[in-house]
Amino acid sequence: MTRDVGEFAVVETLPDALIVLLAALTHLADPWFLFGLLAAFYWFGDDRLSASPRRSGATAIAFVTCAYAAVALGKAVFGFPRPPGADPAAVTAADIPNWLPSLLAVWFEGQLTSDGFGFPSGHATGAVVAYGSLALLADRLWSRRRRIALATFIAVVVAISRVAIEVHYLADVAAGGVLGIAVIGSGLWLAGASDRFRASWVGRIEPPWTVQTPPEPLPIFLLAAGVSLLAAGVAAGGGHSGEVVEASIGIGTGLGGALGWALVSGKEPTVPLGIAVPALLVTGGVWAATFGLDAGPILAVLATGVAVATVLALPSLATWVGE
């Protein structure tokens, strides 16, 4: 089954400088970047950003955890390959602009390749969910429509970038966008916020999360763990060991998020920078390393579970240290 609709013929007409720029912008939805961005929102957000910054930040993390779980399940179910151009063997010196400095040339070559299944696009799904949830949850920043417009722009740019560097078909990123919207809708319902958001949109009430009570991230974390467990089972049944590990990361992230959230009240102050920076380096390093290394499923669950539990519990731990 081919998903090619002629998108790469259009990509070939684009100037090299634009492709390089898009290759850089694709990092806006890399898992490591979103990990740091969402951790920062959760730790440092205050009442200038959200009526309930700790709950809003945790809910955004839960949304993205659920997004990656849904992607893992989709890839395990469909098993559709990436475009031929994503194979490292397909990349030649002619694909690298000769005006790039050697260090950037190595980086750019790495951007042109990717492994694993391609449908749906994890970057497209992650961009829609991460920036869409931030647009909804950072309810005191700018206007709602301005936030949503910016989130939409970033998500579209990321989706285009994945096609431009030829690691995804157009169908992959389109499916990722639809999946991301579905995840946000499901997450709003689970967080008990859908009615409040609808009331806010229709009645022009600002901000949406203060109509009744703030969102509750716990059921979203648990759903993410359950979907990831299902994805791991499907991947194992298909003999896809790499996808089993990715699904295991989702299990650990979901369970770790639920555990960490149980250790906070949701009303803690911001985390001091002196505690947050080393915590981010350690937890982010563990989480990213689990993605990059060939860890087994059990180690993946444990490592990511501890890392994410620490991220969620840090506001409470920092308060305890301060006292």
TrEMBL record:
InterPro entries: PAP2/HPO (IPR000326), PAP2/HPO_sf (IPR036938). The keyword Transmembrane applies. Keywords: Membrane, Transmembrane, Transmembrane helix. The lineage of its organism: Archaea, Methanobacteriati, Methanobacteriota, Stenosarchaea group, Halobacteria. Residues 56-188 form the Phosphatidic acid phosphatase type 2/haloperoxidase domain. It comes from Halorubrum vacuolatum. It comes from the Archaea. This is Membrane-associated phospholipid phosphatase. PANTHER family: AT30094P, SPHINGOSINE-1-PHOSPHATE PHOSPHOHYDROLASE. The keyword Iron does not apply. The chain crosses the membrane at residues 17-44, 56-78, 150-171, 177-197, 218-238, 244-264, 271-292, 298-321.
